[in-house]
Amino acid sequence: MHPSHPIAADTVRVESGSSYPEPFNSRMGSADWRALGEHFGLSQFGFNLETLQPGDQSSARHWHSLADEFIYMLEGELTLNTNDGAFNMRPGMCIGFRAGERNAHHLVNQSQAPARFLVVGTRVPGDTAFYPDDDLAWLQTEAGWHAVHKDGHAYPKFTSTGR
């Protein structure tokens, strides 16, 4: 049973690391997140409170075939890298990425302090995440998320629930 009362977001269990296979996993750094939507049993969208330490990145640069994403900055400063260039993200700033638009993006903490932000994303069966800079894609099936090479063959023995 999931809580039916308000909670402090910082009381939700912290998860850390990344779900990427190597050689991508070691590039991510030591980011952590709190799966706020999961805590309440939400199934139609994910809602995460994420923290990137200096040098961390949120993901490899990617775009989604079926899922929308929205980012809202809370604390610190991050660099948003997209097809259109690099942009500073500061508290109070936000950006959205529509499903199917091939505007690959990720956040990098190039500052000397931690940065916190919210990420909201829809959960659409059959979504695929594409990584134009890397030999990587994530395919969603009934069995979960699968990391694959661009030619479709899977990374060895690697399946994840995704981040």
What does this structure look like?
With 163 residues, this protein is mainly beta. The protein contains two helices and 14 strands, in the order βαβαββββββββββββ. It has helices at residues 25-28, 36-39, and strands at residues 14-16, 32-35, 45-52, 63-64, 69-75, 78-82, 85-89, 94-97, 106-108, 115-122, 128-131, 136-141, 144-148, 154-160. The strands form three sheets. Strands 1-2-3-10-5-8 form a six-stranded antiparallel beta sheet. A five-stranded antiparallel beta sheet has the order 4-11-12-13-14, with no helix packed on it.
Topology:
Blueprint: E1 14-16, H1 25-28, E2 32-35, H2 36-39, E3 45-52, E4 63-64, E5 69-75, E6 78-82, E7 85-89, E8 94-97, E9 106-108, E10 115-122, E11 128-131, E12 136-141, E13 144-148, E14 154-160
Antiparallel strand pairs: 1-2, 2-3, 3-10, 4-11, 5-8, 5-10, 6-7, 6-9, 11-12, 12-13, 13-14
The biggest beta sheet reads: 6 strands, antiparallel
Tally of DSSP β-strands: 14
Strand order of the largest sheet: 1-2-3-10-5-8
End-to-end distance: 22 Å
Structural class: mainly beta
Apparent shape: globular
Question: Could you tell me the mean pLDDT?
Answer: 91
β-strand percent reads 35-45%
Helix proportion of residues, in percent?
A: under 10%
Topology as H/E string?
A: EHEHEEEEEEEEEEEE
Q: What assembly state would you assign to the polypeptide chains in this entry?
A: single chain
What's the gyration radius in Å?
15 Å
